[in-house]
Amino acid sequence: MHFVNFRTDKSIGNSYVRGMGKLVSTKEVADEIGVARQTVSRWVREGVITPARRTAGGQSRFDLDEVKRQLKEHLGEEH
After folding, report:
1. Residue 45: burial class (beta carbons within 10 Å; 0-12, 13-18, 19+)
2. Nearest-CA neighbor of 26 among 55, 4, 6, 1?
3. Which of 3, 48, 70, 72 is spaced 20 to 30 Å from 39 by Cα?
């Protein structure tokens, strides 16, 4: 998947990708959903959720709305 117009707002350090909202870190996803950071990392490894992009350093960045959609879809498949 290729994203265009990536930019970083240096004043607040938030990442944005065209067509998406703010991209957040693994920790921010974990805090928002109420799970441990390690749980989010495990979900990525297991293919439950997919990062919107990876930084040059290999860190995941997520679109929170997309993560919530992916989790809802995954939970729907299990039930």
Report:
1. exposed
2. 55
3. 3
Q: Is residue 37 part of a domain?
A: yes
- Condensed to tens digits (0 to 9), the pLDDT of residues 11-60 reads 334 555 555 678 999 999 999 999 999 999 999 999 999 999 999 999 99
The rounded distance, in Å, linking the Cα atoms of 35 and 6 is 28
Task: Scan for tokens 């997309």, then name that residue.
Answer: 66
Domain that holds residue 72: 7-78
The total of structural domains in the chain comes to: 1
Query: How many whole angstroms separate alpha carbon 77 and alpha carbon 75?
Result: 5
Question: Does 2 fall in a domain?
Answer: no
| CATH number for 72 | 1.10.1660.10
